[in-house]
Amino acid sequence: MLDYSHDDWKSRAAGLSFRGQAFIDGKFVDAVSGKTFDSINPATGAVLTPVSECDEEDINRAVAAGRAAFEGGRWSRMAPGDRKAVMLKLADLIRDNLEEMALLDSLDMGKLVTDAVTIDAPGSAHFFQWYAEAIDKVYDEVAPTGPGDLALVSRVPLGVVGAVTPWNFPLDMATWKAAAALAAGNSVVLKPAEQSPLSALRLAELAAEAGVPDGVFNVVPGFGATAGQALGLHMDVDCLAFTGSTAIGKMFMQYSGQSNLKQVWPETGGKSPNLVFADCEDLDAAADMAAFGIFFNQGEVCSANSRLYVERSIKDAFVEKLIARAQGTQPGDPLDPASKMGAIVDEKQTQGIMRFVEAGKKSANLVTGGERVTVDGKGCFVQPTIFDDVTHDNPLARDEIFGPVLSVIPFDTEEEAVRMANDSIYGLAASVWTDNLSRACRVSDKLMVGTVSVNTVDALSAQTPFGGMKQSGFGRDLSLHSLEKYTALKTTWIKYKA
Question: What residue ranges in 139-277 does DSSP mark as E strands?
Fold first, then answer.
């Protein structure tokens, strides 16, 4: 796969078949209304396939199937070793279908197929394997009591988990939610983003092939205002996990209060700061990763390092390094291994990015990029864009653009850098570049974010929790801590004759 040519990938893409129906209770089904919407390739504008446009009736069917499966115990009370074996098989099936899963995401939302096949798809298989291996290694507790009492503390599944996932990492984000929720013994109703539902639907098919019982994993494509809202308001959904914008995360919190007080776990917006100090010895590595941190996946990353704070004494030289890297990271056909960036997910997102860029041209110093482009006369593509000398109150530095747009802001002191980095409604992630260990620890301690990456960007693994502070949400994906979202503590107190 790593040595596939552009023609190889195009040939494999041409041979794909797409599943566009909802997956409910172990079967592909049309929406009750019969409505569909088109899945569109943003790199070409071509329609990939019609997709079932599900709404409240379909959500009701899926939740009912999930509840029946949960109450029936065919997954929730399955022996841990057996549940583990099914999830391990699912991980293997993802690996067996790696090219297909990568192509589905690349065609559906515009990401580079080389990234999808080397990062996203194998990462999803890894996360399913990791949570499968955790199933029979997480122990319950015995509380300390006096003679004649035995207090057992069990971690039990919640029931039906709703998951609403974004379009930027379609397979990965579905996996982050579903793998942990399924490992804990829950049923899952997943609503993928309408821009990118195809890999989630294929994942459901693979889950059934692996042996996940009917009704345990359901995928219901549709729009947020209909299917998403219905899931958020549903009285029989016990928990809802969401990744997306802060505004929509707040809506799901409201839906919980309007319905059954279901637990809601939002991972929402981000505007991650990247602090580069003059005592960083390898500025080339810092520039490489600063460019990666904003241009990877076309900047469509919730934790993208879109605010770059550079110590003034090195700022001009550092910006020159960044310009060179941006100019070597131009967008191209996502199926071409030579391309350095893919397409923006759709026309609406492209226009939103360009509104920020056009406003920025009037308020900051554009040093590279700043234009919408096409590839072979088609598609939603934006050049990697850098604005220098951005003021801290500029929307370029305040608002989540969710595109390949970097704002460079100089600072003079460590205190100033930390103050500006923390002066945001968001608190998802941050990066710090310094070879002073005391400074690395001191600054990391002061940054109000969920993850601080020192001398790298966006560090994460299955072993470490990922999530934010402030209006970037709460709760954590990844690590054993994510199981806490999908379980409840249950005490069973037994009195006996001592």
Answer: 141-143, 149-157, 160-164, 187-191, 217-219, 239-243, 263-267, 273-276
CATH number of the structural domain spanning residue 81: 3.40.605.10
Domain that holds residue 246: 16-268
Q: Which entry of 54, 280, 302, 380 is annotated as an active-site residue?
A: 302
State the pLDDT at residue 3. 87
138 and 159, same domain (yes or no): yes
The CATH number of residue 405's host domain is 3.40.309.10
- Residues 201 and 102 placed together within one structural domain of the fold: yes
Asked if 182 and 310 sit in the same domain, the reply is no
* Cβ contact 373:331 at 8 Å: yes
71 is catalytic: no
Q: How confident is the model at residue 319 (pLDDT cuts 50, 70, 90)?
A: very high
Residue 152 contacts by C-beta under 8 Å, 6 or more apart in sequence? 140, 141, 142, 143, 491, 492, 493, 494
Split into its structural domains, the chain has a count of 2
Same-domain status, 24 and 110? yes
Strand blocks (E) in 176-332 = 187-191, 217-219, 239-243, 263-267, 273-276, 307-311
Q: Mean pLDDT for the chain? A: 97
Query: Is residue 71 pLDDT above 80, yes or no?
Result: yes
Reduce the DSSP state of residue 183 to 3 states and report it: helix
Query: Is 302 assigned a catalytic role?
Result: yes
Q: How far is CA 205 from CA 94, 200, 260, 389, 465, in A?
A: 11, 9, 31, 50, 28
User: Domain check: are 82 and 119 in the same one?
Assistant: yes
- Say whether both 326 and 434 belong to one domain: yes
- pLDDT for 358-388, tens place per residue? 999 999 999 999 999 999 999 999 999 999 9
Mean pLDDT of 355-360: 98
pTM, 2 dp: 0.97
Q: Note the pLDDT tens digit of each residue in 86-126.
A: 999 999 999 999 999 999 999 999 999 999 999 999 999 99
- The single residue of 53, 100, 194, 267 carrying the catalytic annotation is 267
